[in-house]
């Protein structure tokens, strides 16, 4: 019955937005409340669950998305994005630009949470799109596939890192196997799959579009890359220090402080305000005007993402994810495929890759000794399942749709199918590795 309710809620959500033309945020609120009541959450707790979902998700994202949009706007208006795109195209050529962006997404995605990496790198995708008149979806999918793969397969991302502990896997081996799985998965879901997407009409968010500047008014290549990628460098450095450093006392507190994405974004925006703003002879009032425009443009995205968080929280608080996992637990199939299926089913129903992964781990952990499989591969199998078919109940779906400004149909044909390819190919490579170890 619970599964039927979930499917009905998703159908109603899609119909409200597409057929009824209801604002997505309002649609999420209505469906979330209805889902809470239908799934048996106490009447007095439904509103609290909705509020917790919105606040919990936006609490992590609102500052990062807001500051990231400001940085992206300045990178675009200062000419830094134009300079970056020139350097990339001159280095790799137009035929290979997808591979350049894919490699950037993979390197950046290792230390960064998916949403942070998305916000930081989307302006780079759009700069290439605007400068060279290339289809945004065709150019962007390889980079987003790389970000998605690192999010689902590689520690220190939340789900795989937690799965390592819950399934008694080895962090180093999981990371090694994860790289082996990641490379072919990204290639298939990125440049190869993107060949089918050239015809998708996309008008990316205008906040990242700037008028071309004469070459003599552009920042230098070093300044442009440094300003745009400083958050990546800082977060990667912090991740390495946390992973390999042995700190205590005040030093440990300082490293922890500067590891926070909010602090990193504030520092990066301050540096960029000078390096590609004031140092390029722009007035402070002009730079602040860019920031105001950027916040106006991303405000609707924040509300939609928050709405997706409300629906996810209602599903989680109702306990339906545990019920779904229990239905699949006794199926007579290969243990790695079982782990993948449990995570995939929860992901499609609930929307959150992290929730799908962690819920699956809670179901599988007690029976791991009887399954007789490598726990490191189980981590990756669950990670692959947790990325299956992102759709309207996933905040990533709506970030992609709103940033790239595409229809729901085209979002499903590009974003949702890309995530499905990542999940299926990733699982296939995990099974291949299982044959040799």
From TrEMBL:
Keyword Cell membrane: yes
Main location: membrane
PANTHER family: GNT FAMILY GLUCONATE TRANSPORTER, HIGH-AFFINITY GLUCONATE TRANSPORTER
Domain of life from the UniProt record: Bacteria
One Pfam family linked to the record: GntP_permease
NCBIfam families reported in the protein's UniProt record: gntP (TIGR00791)
The family this protein is said to belong to: Belongs to the GntP permease family.
Keyword annotations from UniProtKB, A to Z: Cell membrane, Membrane, Transmembrane, Transmembrane helix, Transport
Lineage: Bacteria, Pseudomonadati, Bacteroidota, Cytophagia, Cytophagales
Identification of the protein by name: Gluconate:H+ symporter
Species assigned in the record: Imperialibacter roseus
């Amino acid at each position: 019955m619970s599964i039927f309710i979930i499917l009905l809620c998703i159908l109603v959500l899609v119909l409200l937005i597409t057929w009824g033309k209801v604002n997505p945020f309002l649609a999420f609120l209505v469906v979330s409340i209805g889902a809470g009541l239908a799934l048996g959450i106490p009447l007095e707790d439904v509103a609290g669950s909705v509020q917790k979902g919105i606040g919990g998700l936006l609490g992590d994202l609102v500052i990062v998305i807001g500051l990231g949009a400001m940085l992206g706007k300045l990178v675009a208006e200062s000419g830094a994005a134009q300079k970056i795109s020139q350097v990339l195209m001159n280095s790799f050529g137009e035929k290979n630009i997808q591979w350049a962006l894919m490699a950037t997404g993979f390197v950046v995605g290792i230390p960064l949470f998916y949403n942070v990496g998305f916000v930081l790198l989307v302006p780079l995708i759009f700069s290439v799109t605007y400068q060279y008149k290339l289809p945004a979806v065709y150019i962007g999918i390889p980079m987003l596939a790389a970000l998605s793969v690192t999010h689902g397969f590689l520690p220190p991302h939340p789900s795989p890192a937690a799965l390592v502990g819950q399934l008694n896997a080895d962090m180093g081996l999981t990371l090694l196997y994860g790289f082996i799985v990641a490379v072919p998965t990204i290639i298939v879901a990125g440049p190869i799959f993107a060949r089918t997407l050239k015809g998708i009409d996309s008008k990316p968010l205008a906040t990242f579009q700037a008028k071309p500047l004469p070459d003599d008014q552009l920042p230098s290549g070093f300044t442009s890359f440094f300003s745009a990628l400083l958050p990546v460098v800082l977060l990667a450095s912090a991740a390495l220090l946390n992973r390999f450093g042995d700190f205590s006392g005040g030093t440990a507190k300082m490293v922890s402080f500067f590891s926070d994405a909010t602090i990193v974004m504030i520092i990066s925006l301050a540096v960029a305000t000078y390096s590609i703003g004031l140092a390029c002879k722009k007035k402070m009032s002009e730079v602040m005007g860019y920031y105001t425009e950027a916040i106006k443009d991303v405000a609707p995205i924040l509300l939609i993402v928050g709405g997706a968080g409300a629906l996810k929280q209602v599903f989680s608080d109702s306990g339906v994810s545990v019920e779904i996992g229990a239905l699949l637990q006794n199926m007579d199939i290969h243990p790695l495929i079982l782990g993948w299926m449990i995570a995939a089913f929860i992901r499609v129903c609930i929307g959150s890759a992290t929730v799908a992964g962690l819920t699956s781990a809670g179901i599988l952990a007690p029976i791991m000794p009887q399954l007789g499989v490598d726990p490191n591969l189980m981590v990756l199998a669950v990670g692959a399942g947790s990325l299956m078919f992102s759709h309207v109940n996933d905040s990533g779906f709506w970030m992609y749709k709103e940033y790239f400004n595409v229809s729901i149909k085209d979002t499903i044909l590009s974003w949702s199918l890309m995530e499905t390819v990542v999940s299926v190919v990733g699982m296939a490579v995990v099974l291949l590795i299982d044959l040799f170890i």
